[in-house]
Amino acid sequence: MAIPFVIEKIPFEHSAEQHQTIGAPKLAHQFSLRITELPSATARPAAPVSLAALGGVAQLIAHDFRHHLCTVGANAEFLVSRTMDSANREELLDEIRAAIECMTEQLDSLLLFTRTGCNLQPRRQSLNLILERAIRMARAHPDAHHVEISSNDMPFLEASVDGLRLCSAIFNLLLNACQAAKTTPGMKTVDIVLNQNRQYIFIRVLDRGPGVPHAIRNTLFQPFVKAEGGSGTGLGLTIARCIAREHGGEVCLEESRPGKTVFVLKLSKRALKALSDMPNSASIA
Ligand SMILES: Nc1ncnc2c1ncn2[C@@H]1O[C@H](COP(=O)(O)OP(=O)(O)O)[C@@H](O)[C@H]1O
Ligand SMILES: [Mg+2]
For an engineered disulfide with 84, which of 26, 88, 115, 175 has Cβ 3.0 to 4.6 Å away? Predict the structure, then answer.
């Protein structure tokens, strides 16, 4: 079937000042993609995989691997250092299995990308299941311990998305929210809300942390931007936005003040429909 849209890279918007501080301006170009309508209803042939494109996908995967390995390491430490009942032990082992499964899937997707040049593997699936998986992954991360992640009253929604990639974007938003929630006294809760209107699907992640520091609000989605003294890589939001854009969507900071921060991942139903019309590429044998 013909594709009325094309997914293409667009230059990343960043200032000359940022160029100097990140010291890796080339990276920026690997992170900005958009879906645009083609004038004619014909698809462009798939381009051969360039080293730069491969580097971009590898960056994405490496960032997630750090988080998964963090979960595996922390759970392994728990297992050897604490006496615990078999139910708790099984739970920790399950989290390790889930992290390994996710890393394996991500390596598979990298291999598939090198073979086919196809970055996204869209398939019609339940968004609720993707959210549940992202929540499970976030809960297993040491930074989410003692944080309650709640997801009440979600409508059942299906769409044509790359579940692995979308899960990664949502996981990054959830983890940031948990890290922010952790810094506040009292109840530490994070909410994730899924809803829709006629044109869009919205996934909102809300925390009651201190808010995004003003100094980085304007550059938040650029590579390597993080709060002063922050321990991360400053790539999580860049990756989340990149994945949303690959789906023809967007990630934005909707609101942020002490006690309430909301990030929204918005997916255009029209662009998702275009993705669902893409011919399915080869799968890993
Ligand atoms: N929910 C949030 N509340 C407060 N600050 C946030 C939140 N989400 C992100 N940030 C800020 O944005 C910075 C960049 O986040 P991110 O791109 O995910 O980087 P990293 O990969 O290091 O986590 C973080 O260092 C943090 O200061
Ligand atoms: Mg982060």
Answer: 88
Distance CA 84, CA 88 (A): 6
Distance of CA 266 from the midpoint of ligand 2 (Å) = 18
Residue linked to tokens 């390491």: 73
- Please state the atom number of ligand 1 nearest to the C-alpha of residue 237: 17
Q: Which CATH superfamily is domain 5-39+125-276 in?
A: Histidine kinase-like ATPase, C-terminal domain (3.30.565.10)
Q: Is the CB of 261 under 6 A from ligand 1?
A: yes
Task: Say if ligand 1 is within 6 A of residue 234 CB.
Answer: yes
Dist CA 156 CA 129 (whole Å): 10
Is the CB of 89 within 6 Å of ligand 1? no
Q: Which residues contact 170 (CB under 8 A, 6 or more apart)?
A: 130, 131, 134, 192, 203, 205, 240, 265
Q: What is the pLDDT of residues 94-128, one digit of tens each?
A: 999 999 988 888 888 787 777 767 778 899 999 99
- For ligand 1, whether the C-beta of 223 sits within 6 Å is no
* Spans of all domains in the chain: 5-39+125-276
pTM: 0.78
236 lines ligand 1 (CB under 6 A): yes
